[in-house]
Write a structure and sequence with these properties.
By secondary structure, the protein is an alpha/beta fold. It has helices at residues 10-15, 26-34, 43-54, 56-62, 66-69, 84-93, 108-115, 130-140, 165-171, 187-198, 234-248; strands spanning 99-102, 123-127, 149-152, 173-177, 201-214, 218-221, 228-231, 252-259, 275-284. It is built from 11 helices and 9 strands.
């Protein structure tokens, strides 16, 4: 997920904001109960207290996008990815392997890896909004125990930012998680940032994630008022990564599926009847 900082359309933004939770999905409940040791009866009040009555409205005002307003950050998207077991094995078997979560939001997927046995030192979360990562410590109550690094950075600027980005490019990751990110931008900007992300991935490494796609790939109205974003199918996503390969002397293979899981529906101004979830794995083969 990635922050937009677009506050230009209050009426539209309100459509993306749900009221307090009355229940949560089973995976995030399990994570909070087992990893964070939140008593079962306190899980929902704990989330509401931290993310709504205290800070969530402020966070949504600064970052009005459906992933926050519709509580999508409570969906452990990496856990349900077809590659999750392989990712878990890869990280658990070799402590030198590195995982980077781009647009990590509250760091929820990163914490699931820790709960499943991965050393937290192997995991890096990155987001443009420091406040979201700080909220993650409050949500999961692990400020004193989690050894993962959380870095504030603008992915679009890449190495222009100097450290710590340049160190990430030198080390390179085995797994990069990048969900709900590319679909925020026009195709030209997606290509630009994909070339930056490519520099973070070592040979045989993978980029996994999910994003909004379409059965009819095209530019569509985006979250920022007056802007567009390109929605891919698997074929057009492969074509973009073919271009990334040509411009970076690398080679990438994209696999993926389109489905209707998690689509917002009729009240969304950024989805239509062709909208689908694109679940993808991008492998650096050269």
């Amino acid at each position: 997920m990635a922050a937009t900082r677009d506050i230009s359309n209050a009426a539209r933004n309100k459509q993306w904001y749900d009221e307090d939770l009355s229940e949560v999905n089973a995976p995030i409940r399990s994570l909070l109960e087992t990893y964070s040791k939140v008593p079962p009866e306190r899980v929902v009040p704990h989330i509401n207290a931290i993310l709504i009555s205290i800070q969530r409205e402020k966070g949504f005002a600064a970052n009005p996008y459906p992933c926050i307003g519709h509580y999508r950050f409570l969906n452990l998207t990496l856990l349900t990815h077809p590659m999750y077991s392989s990712i878990l094995h890869r990280l658990s078997q070799d402590p030198s392997n590195l995982y980077i979560d781009l647009g990590c939001c509250f760091g929820q997927d990163l914490r699931q890896l820790v709960a499943d046995g991965v050393r937290s030192e192997q995991l890096i979360g990155l987001d443009i909004e420091a406040s979201l990562m700080e909220l993650g410590y409050d949500l999961f109550m692990d400020r004193e125990t989690l050894k993962s690094r959380f870095l504030v950075a603008d992915i679009f600027r890449g190495a222009e930012q100097g450290e710590p980005w340049t160190s990430l490019e030198q080390k390179k990751a085995d797994i990069v998680h990048c969900s709900a990110f590319f679909h925020l931008f026009p195709l030209a900007e997606q290509l630009h940032v994909a070339k930056i992300i490519a520099r973070l991935v070592r040979a045989n490494g993978i980029i996994v994630g999910r994003q909004s796609g379409s059965t009819k790939p095209s530019e569509m109205p985006a979250i920022a008022e007056g802007s567009t974003s390109f929605r891919h199918d698997v074929s057009t996503f492969q074509s973009m990564w073919d271009e990334v390969g040509r411009e970076t002397s690398t080679k990438w293979e994209v696999s993926g599926t389109l489905d209707t899981v998690g689509m917002i529906g009729k009240k969304s101004t950024v989805e239509d009847e062709n909208s689908r979830r694109l679940l993808f794995t991008i492998t650096r083969v050269k």
